[in-house]
């Protein structure tokens, strides 16, 4: 991402979405223009409330939040209160946000921002791809107007997380994911293969809790529930995956994957056991991934494992505008 | 495998099938009772001819060879002359075998041997699983009569080899594979995850070519074509995967996988992009693979990478009965 390129984030906020937003907001060089919400970790409406809570914390209520799809293109929705809590933020009982979402629908906002910034807008998608797919259906010229799309989603060599084959964001709307991955824009896919190897630990949480910035203490608070869930269901140890924060860091170029070939990627949209699986053609892995004609999807397959430390450092150093004003 | 347990090998001979058979025949402690052939690398008929050629080389024409299915349960057949040569043995122009296959159909032979050796027979499947599936359909009690089934097939975390998702043996007959993996017997699956990490090299070929045993020179001869193909299409270096020999070694207990959890395994039988993929539930990988109730499939996910050397050593030390007689 070139400095001054505008960024739109589409998310289902969500604990790790909140951490990713705080990470982006902590960087004054990022021109975060708008946030759109989608069902996934929680409903699109609660995701918008949580986004507003995060923006409030960061003193950035100038950034508009728009509500998007509350179910997949097929009309289904599988939320994840067992992972993110009933409120989507680890059952931390936060007060209602003071601000409200904009009335502009998410997909229309995406199209408008792309039209207003032709060839410059970056999209970062951290939830199911329903809003992006809807935006492409709304304006088929959209892919030609957007500079880059970064997507947290999928599982290539790594097992899925909602089924043995599929990762939650893609599994929640495989039809939308397939449409978005084949829309003809440049995409970076950030799958479980990398997000599961960049982990936040109890030590990270303690550092954030002891931090001076209220934002880092907020992050520590919502992280507690996430660590509980990951310990119980995934790692058997007190650590949690950095899904959305890692995708955000890759989107803004602060993390460069060590291995990220451009390969053909398909999404399983059958009703079989691989429904929602991202099928990337990595058969060229022993030959340095020779070019695959026609694909514009770069798949992050390896990062260096040092991101969580940098994320925590950033959140601990966060100085929000409202705090500056206060 | 306990010494004296009878073994039946089902295969689509094929270069690596031939190497696996030679490997088994080189061990006088293995009670190889019969070989059944199936379409796959080549037709079931050519596979039988090639099997007879191998048995002739090894001086073991006392072992019956039976021809089985020439297409999948769905009636399809995708042969692989581009990998194994038009003759299935690297276009080495070998003379016709002197002996003939038995007239007993493969599936019937499998059932008969299982009935004659209740609870003792081991099956080693190195091709599409059509014969085994047909045998189960022929005699639904078969799974209760067989001691263990070892299958070379599938790709779990590793990419496929005939499609981005699927490995050839499973892709050739997903319906049969699904039936066999769920038949209720104890199975060890030997997927690309391990067979691609145990590689024969040009150095191995030279050692076998320089060996005293005509069998090792035969192995070196057919390996040449295989190395060519793997260099061109897969590794970009003169090395080839040990698919079937590794499965044979695991079947007889000479190789113990370093990691081989018992997990639920399904096969994609849709017509989507994952058709033929083996979907193993490896989500427990970070917690030491907690037991998954009901599964009887052990999936080899890691071996120690030293097998090819041992294979070559065995083939170089091969002393066939006919040579002993001569």
Describe the structure.
The structure is a homodimer. In chain A, about 60% of the residues are buried. With about 325 residues, the first copy, chain A, is of the alpha/beta class. Chain A is globular. In chain A, the strands form three sheets. In chain A, strands 3-2-1-4-5-6-11 form a seven-stranded parallel β-sheet, with helices on both faces. In chain A, strands 7-8 form a two-stranded antiparallel sheet. Chain A has a two-stranded antiparallel ribbon with strand order 9-10. In chain A, helix 1 (about 15-25) links the parallel strand 1 and strand 2. The two termini of chain A are about 30 Å apart. The first copy, chain A, has a single domain (about 5-325), classed as Ribonucleoside hydrolase-like (Inosine-uridine Nucleoside N-ribohydrolase, Chain A, Alpha-Beta Complex). Helix content of chain A is about 40%, strand content about 15%. Chain A is built from 14 helices and eleven strands. Residues about 320-325 of chain A have low confidence and may be disordered.
């Amino acid at each position: 991402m070139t400095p001054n390129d505008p960024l739109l984030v589409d998310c289902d906020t969500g604990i790790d979405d909140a951490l990713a937003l705080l990470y982006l907001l902590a960087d004054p060089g990022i021109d975060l223009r708008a946030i759109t919400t989608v069902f996934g970790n929680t409903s699109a409406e609660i995701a918008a409330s949580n986004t507003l809570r995060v923006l409030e914390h960061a003193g950035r209520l100038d950034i508009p939040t728009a509500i998007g799809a509350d179910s997949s293109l097929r009309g289904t929705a599988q939320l994840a209160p067992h992972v993110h809590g009933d409120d989507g933020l680890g059952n931390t009982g936060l007060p209602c946000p003071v601000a409200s979402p904009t009335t502009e629908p998410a997909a229309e906002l995406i199209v408008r921002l792309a039209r207003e910034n032709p060839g410059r807008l970056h999209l970062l998608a951290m939830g199911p791809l329903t809003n992006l797919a809807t935006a492409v259906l709304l304006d088929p010229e959209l892919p030609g107007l957007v500079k880059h799309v970064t997507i947290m989603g999928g599982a290539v060599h790594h097992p899925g997380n909602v089924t043995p084959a599929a990762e939650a964001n893609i599994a929640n709307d495989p039809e939308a994911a397939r449409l978005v991955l084949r829309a003809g824009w440049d995409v970076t896919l950030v799958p479980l293969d990398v997000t599961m190897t960049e982990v936040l630990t109890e030590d990270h949480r303690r550092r954030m809790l002891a931090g001076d910035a209220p934002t880092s203490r907020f992050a520590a608070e919502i992280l507690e529930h996430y660590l509980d869930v990951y310990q119980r269901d995934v790692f058997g140890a007190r650590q949690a995956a950095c899904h959305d924060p890692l995708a955000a860091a890759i989107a803004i170029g602060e993390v460069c994957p060590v291995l990220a070939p451009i390969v053909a990627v398909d999404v399983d949209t059958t009703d079989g056991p691989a429904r929602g699986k991202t099928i990337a053609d990595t058969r060229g892995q022993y030959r340095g991934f020779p070019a695959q004609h026609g694909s514009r999807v770069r798949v992050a397959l390896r990062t260096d494992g040092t991101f969580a430390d940098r994320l925590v450092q950033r959140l601990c150093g966060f100085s929000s505008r409202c705090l500056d004003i206060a």
